Amino acid sequence: MARQDGTRDVTLETPLHALLANKRRVSALKKLGVLDVRDALTYYPFRVTDPVPVRALVQAQPGLKEKMACAVRVRSVRVSPMNARAGYRVEVLVDDDEFAATLHVRGSLATLVFFSHRKSYVDWLAGRLRVDGHVVIAGDPTMYMDRLQFTHPELLTVGGANLRADVSTVAEGLQRVCRPRPVYHANSRISSEHIHDTILYVLRLLAGEDPATAMHADDETAQPHMRTLYAENPQIREHLDAAIPDILPGNLLAELNLMHRAQAFSQIHDPDSVGAFTQAITTMRYEEAFVCQTALIRARHDAREHNAYVCSDVQLRDEYIDTLPFVLTKGQREVVDEISHDMCQDHPMQRLLQGEVGSGKTVVAVSAMLQAVGSGHQAVLVAPTQVLAEQHYQSISNVFNRAPVLLLTGGMKLAERRKVLGTAASGEPCIVVATHAAFSKSFQAPNLALAVIDEQHRFGVEQRETLRSKSDVDPHLLVMTATPIPRTAAMTWFGDLDISWLTELPGGRKPIQTVVIPEENAPLMAEMFWHIRHRIDAGERAYIVCPRIEESTEDAEGGESGGDARADSDDGMLLSDEDLGETNARAPLHSVHEISERLQSLPQFQGVRFCELTGRDDDETKERVMAEFASGQTPVMVATTVIEVGVDVPQASCIVIFDADRYGLSQLHQLRGRVGRGGTHSWAFLVSQAEPNSIAEQRLDVIAHSLDGALIAQKDLELRGAGDVLGDTQSGGRSSLKLLRVVKDAAMITDARKRAELLLDADPTLEHHTQLAGAVLDFSRGNEKFLTSN
Ligand code: ADP
Ligand code: MG
């Protein structure tokens, strides 16, 4: 079956448009992120069908919409043209007398019906169906005019005298039509079956088959019968193994009972059995885990090869810690020491600090920065929002005046900005508090010893990398996140970093009480507003969070509201109807302006001043609004999720989150952490339109009953995809991790990490594992995109 036409060999990199004549199909696949052969092979099915049962025709159960398979003999074939528009109808009368006898039942008759516009197809079909010829069929039986009928059944011709038959025996034919089929995520432009056909076609080309022979996979009316026969045909096996070389080392495949890579792809897209399919998926999943861990461990080793400023003077730092109005918790002390140890090395620290909202990460970060400045260098703290940068800038300036503390944001006046950039570029020891502006080329700090990134999930690996280019040597890196990530997830996403945890909350904080409030429950809503009024009268503050900035004019359309909201919110992470599997159109999402007006007209809020804050406000406005809220002038703030990260107003005791059913759990947890930071009692009200017993309601239940960030993160991961939790809308189809699930596959990830470490110990540059080296490189490139959000 070797290629004879001299065309170039198909490889994993071959683009599909070079292989498929059907341009509509090429473009439909492109929409799914499938551009080349590799994409096609890694467009994994999400399940396989059950094996099709074998029955005699009399045992058929028409009307049940259940497939069956049977062996029959052709009695007659009739091709009749329908009217000009509709094309042709092929009607085949068959009996199963012989086959029924083997099952000890009586034989009977059935009709097979095919329709097509294309004469060529009809001729090809009729040519295969000779009177008295045996065929194996599989399909969904129906009754039509008192006779059993199969419309477009799958069909294999059985050998005998016919050398061009599909199979040589009935048993072989039955085995093939009955085997489980993969089912793919499809869309309105391409069906799962057509995706399957294309992938099998591509596999056959990779196996060296002639395009003309493999062609019918691209024929819309032909049945998918493109078995690759990896298991049975040594020629195919040889070709495929060469075209799809193993990435995992051979000894590892054997030890873990995994398949060869080519075999795995064959068994995923063309499984012999459900068991083989599962084993094949496990193989590819393990490969992802292993490649990912190898890439991360290598990145970590690489970092050790770089130079960093040694920061060993801790005097300034200790003075700062001594002036704090509280003592560090044991956890904070430990992390400060870990960081201190790292910063005394001459290679860059790569550390992730995980700690619940309110666990006191800022003090740790400031300590580290003072260690850098005290040692004669520069430090930068990057915050995800303007508001947060302001806050950090204020609190650091308040406690520290031994070196310049500078604020760098995008919205600054040019002259001011120039001055800050000038100081940084001069190399003078200083602390820079910045927003994304720190990633711009104009920011250079040749004496930069430490970069702290607050709230990592808003930043990507690429941005982390950008910071490394700011200085003459690599800065020490401290990444902080309040979104608790299960251990194996952290291992997968931040496996190149050392990890510290802050587990206890300082200062005897009282747990936040969380209540889910169905929006249609008017008395409960009223009671909630009264409660808030009382807290405000007691000198406290309240946040009201809405997903949208403005009311949309397009809401009348219904159903689309989820999509609109993304464009009109400060949040790329809202769930859509589709994410939630909702089909009923629901009321439009609430907006800041609408809610602000509505609440101000309520008796509960007479005489109370409101303010509004959204991502659209300019920096000056934001600053003013925050200050007025903090001072109590405007004790109720209606805002978007701009308040999500880090905002710290100790008097805030209540937060109301409208459309709470539309947020990720970790995000709700994060939002709720905005209240109760001053030691008062605090409340989070999750206003929801979730239907009773829906998944959305279950999700809110989780958050209402737990304050454990790690558990919430775990549930969030189970209920949604990993990419969503990271804030990456992902699913562009090209992310490197397609099968690996950071929660369910925890054991696999841990195992892969151990084995990857062993392999790298023996072969640090992967010179003896070239396929693996290539995959690692691809992963690192793809992963930049995968981890980059916002
Ligand atoms: P986060 O980890 O969410 O960034 P912060 O650093 O903002 O938390 O700290 C939350 C609050 O706790 C701040 O007001 C901070 O001053 C206070 N805090 C931090 N450490 C301690 C401590 N050891 N004892 C008491 N209060 C503390
Ligand atoms: Mg913080």
Give me a quick take on this structure:
This protein has 790 residues and is α/β, with parallel strands linked by helices.
What does this structure look like?
Keywords: ATP-binding, DNA damage, DNA repair, DNA-binding, Helicase, Hydrolase, Nucleotide-binding. With 790 residues, the protein is an alpha/beta fold. Among the domains are: 122 residues, Beta Barrel (OB fold (Dihydrolipoamide Acetyltransferase, E2P)); 159 residues, 3-Layer(aba) Sandwich (Rossmann fold), CATH 3.40.50; 218 residues, 3-Layer(aba) Sandwich (Rossmann fold), CATH 3.40.50.300. 39% of the residues lie in helices and 16% in strands. The strands form 4 sheets. The chain has a 7-stranded mixed sheet with strand order 6-7-4-3-2-5-8. A 7-stranded parallel sheet has the order 12-13-11-14-15-10-16, with helices on both faces. Strands 17-22-21-18-20-19 form a 6-stranded parallel sheet, with helices on both faces. It is globular. The protein starts with 22 loop residues before the first helix and ends with a helix. Bound molecules: adenosine-5'-diphosphate and magnesium ion. Magnesium ion binds next to helix 14. Magnesium ion (MG) binds next to helix 14.
